[in-house]
Amino acid sequence: MVESAAKRDRARRETRRRFEQWARNPECHANVVSAVHNVKMGVAARKENPNAPREGQSVFALERGVTFEGSLVANGAERLLKALQDAQVVSPTSTNFEDHRTTSNGGPLTSLDVAVETGHQFLTSLANGTKFNGAISSLTVRIPRGIMLPEATLIIDVLSVQTDGDIPVIAVGEVKTYADQGGHTHRSDLATARAQMGLYVHALEITLEGLGLAEKVEVSKVGFLVLTYPGSNQPSVRSGEDLRFQRERARRGFELMEESALLMNGEYGAGDDSDPESLLQLVLDAPTSFQDSCIAFCERADACYQKALDNGEGVALGNDVHRFLNGISLHRADELMGGARPKNDAEKDLMRRLNEQLPELP
Predict the structure, then answer these.
(1) Cα–Cα distance measured from residue 244 to residue 223, given in angstroms and rounded to the nearest whole number
(2) Residues 342 and 242 in one domain
(3) For the chain, what is the domain count?
């Protein structure tokens, strides 16, 4: 029971999943409420419809991920450090390693709070001149801003550290169990991993700024991926991942999410983070905004799609159709295509564009 509670607490406070959820549809107020207050959208979906399908990552995939990460840090991270050296992420003499995982994830630290304190102490020690060349597993930071409730915390899979230059340089890495297939690795997999690393870069920057260490520790804009060799659990490191765009995306995203959270609290009420039922109702009462992207991540997508279809919203046929209709409903577009006379300039413009695409229309 203690371990289950620890895992639930980590899931509640670890921020990355919630940020990515928000980023997939920041125009949906219900999605913003869900991400900021950490109310699972699946719970809301089953409140609306007890028969709503349950989504979740494969138990086998999760277990493989835990096994792979455990193998990387075993024996003082011998395997991980060798792979990072071979990929020139760290120098050949970089052999330092610290394990910042919590006990619930197989590590030595007793809780998420201890992990945050340990992570911040480590960054401070680098700024104060501690020599460390190697890697950190699961460095944890608390972001000193009010973007999410109850707090914003990030756990970074792996961090490389080099202190041979004028100031320490840290670079973020992401561990994934899918195979490194060179130029044939799935683009969406790589895009997701890079987006996560960009989030880490920005989180480290604002954490260092909050600790007063921004001028004493450099966060590299180049990261690395730790994948697997095809057909094995041996690590394959992809170095030189340019994260400037992803870092800027995260920076702007944090600003917009903070603005959304403040506006949301003013419009819908802040909710009580100690009362799950009030937060769930907050999600259910907030307006939804269906988009193509919802299908891939939100368990309320079916219900929102049906609502959009019933209302004749163009987005029910895709974001491109929604933009093409420019605010005109599917019902009215059907009438216009059937011969109805346009009533305003918007409808005249739609008919002009439809006739360009479909000259056989009346």
Answers:
(1) 10
(2) no
(3) 2
CA distance 83 to 170: 17
For 35-88, the pLDDT digits (tens) are 877 788 888 988 888 876 665 555 556 677 778 888 899 999 999 999 999 999
Lowest mean pLDDT among 2-6, 122-126, 128-132, 278-282: 2-6
* pLDDT tens profile 220-229: 999 999 988 8
Backbone angles phi, psi at 160, to 5 degrees: -95, 145
The rounded distance, in Å, linking the Cα atoms of 361 and 124 is: 69
Query: Rounded CA gap, 286 and 39, in Å?
Result: 13
Domain stop point among 220, 238, 253? 253
Domain interval for residue 164? 59-253
Which residues neighbour 182 within 8 Å (Cβ) at sequence distance 6 or greater?
A: none
Q: Which residue, 229, 253, 277, sits at the end of a domain?
A: 253
The one-character DSSP state at 314 is G
- Helices and strands of the chain, counted as H and E runs: 14, 7
Q: Read out DSSP for 214-247? A: TTTSEEPSEEEEEEE-TTS--EEEEEEEE-HHHH
The answer to the question of residue 122 being in a domain is yes
Element (H, E) at 127: helix 112-127
Indicate if 68 and 215 belong to the same structural domain: yes
Instruction: Answer yes or no: do 227 and 136 share one domain.
Output: yes
CA distance 175 to 157: 6
In a domain, 191, yes or no: yes
CA distance 186 to 285: 38
Cα separations in angstroms, 239 against 205, 243, 345: 21, 11, 54
C-alpha Rg value of the chain to the nearest Å: 24
Q: Which two tokens stand for residue 99?
A: 């394990």
The tally of CA atoms less than 13 A away on the side-chain side of residue 123 is 29
